[in-house]
Amino acid sequence: MQKVIVTGGTGYIGSHTIVDLMQNGYEVICLDNLSRSKEYALTGIENITGKKPVFYHVNLCDKNETFRVINEHKDAIGVIHFAALKSVPESVEKPLLYYANNIDSLLNILMSVKTFNIPNFVFSSSCSVYGNADELPVTENTPVKDAESPYAHTKQIGEDIIRNYEKTNDTQSILLRYFNPIGAHPSAEIGEIPIDTPNNLVPYITQTAIGKLEQVVVFGDDYSTRDGSCIRDYIHVCDIAHAHTLALQYLAEKRNANNCEVFNLGTGNGVSVLEVIHAFEKVTGIKLNYKIGPRRAGDVVAVFADNKKAASELKWECKYFLEDAMESAWKWELKMKELGL
Ligand code: WQD
Fold first, then answer.
1. Which residues does ligand 1 sit against, CB inside 6 Å?
2. What's the pTM value of the predicted model, to 2 decimals?
C-alpha cells in the first residue's frame, strides 16, 4: 500500500482529503499541531473509512520535530501540505504570527522532503493569491496581483518558495489554488469545526440557523452584480479533496509537464451571497435571519475560476453542487451540536 503524508490533516480540507486518499487505497500519515483543529477529526475519518490514520501531534515550525517524523516515513510517495493558519482578519491583526507560522512550517516540510528524497509534493494554495483579478473567470495564467491580506501574501510567498526551489531540485510539485470551500462529507462524520466565531459565509449561516449566532449580515448589496451582493466560486470540500488524490496520482504517474504546476480548484460558476442564503433556505426549509449591512473592507466584488486545466489534465470534475453543500453543511452543524463540538 503506497503511503502519503498529510500535514494539517485534522483540519477541514485535510480531513476530507485523508478520507478520499484512504478510500483510494493509500496509507495516510497525519501530522497536525491541533492549534486550529480537533483530534475528533480522526474519529470521524475512522467512522467513514473503518481505519484511523497514523497521527503525530507535531509542531512543523520545529525543524528537528519535523525531520524526526518525516524520517520515519521517508518511504512515502508524497506529502500534501495543508498545515497553515488561514483566517484573513486574524492575519491582518497578527501579520507576524502568520508569516512566521505559515512560512517556517513550509520551509521545514520542504527541507525534509528534499533531505529524505520524497518524490512528490502538493501545496495547499488559494484563489486569494490573485488578489482583485482584472479578468473573469480567473485562469492559472491570470496575473497575481498585490495580496489583500497577510494570509494571502503567505500563500503567494509559499508558491514563490516552491517555484524557486524547483528550479534546482527535482521534487515533482503541484500548487492547488482553492476558491471557496464549503459543505461537509455527506456522512456528517467530518466537517469544518470553526474555533471561534466563523469569518466565512457558510459556517456563519449554519451557526445562525442553529441559534449559535443571532443574524447573518450580508456585507453589502450595492455591488455591480446581478443582485448587488458579492460573487464567489463556492466549491464542495469533497470535490476539493478528490482533486488532491488526482494531483498526487498525476505526479506519481509522471504525467506532469514540468516539476511545478498550478491548478485552479473551483466550479467555474460564480454565485452571489444572497443566492447562497436562498439555496440554504430552499434545501433546509429554514427561514434564515439575515439583514443587509455595510460592505466588508478587502472584499473583491467577484471572483470565480476557469477550471478547464484541472478538468483536462487531472481528469477532475465537480460531483457536488451548491444545494449538496448546503445540505451537508447543515447536517454537519446538527451533528456538531449532538457531539458537543
Ligand atoms: C464570502 C462572501 C463576504 C460572511 C475567504 C478567504 C480566501 C479563502 C476563502 C482560504 C464575501 C460575504 C461573509 C458574512 C457576508 N480561504 N459574507 N457575511 O472572503 O471570499 O474568501 O475564504 O484560502 O482566502 O479570503 O470568503 O466566506 O469570508 O466571504 O456577506 O457573515 O460572503 O462579503 O462576499 P472570502 P468569505
1. 86, 88, 126, 128, 152, 178, 180, 199-201, 204, 216-219, 230, 232, 273, 296, 299
2. 0.98
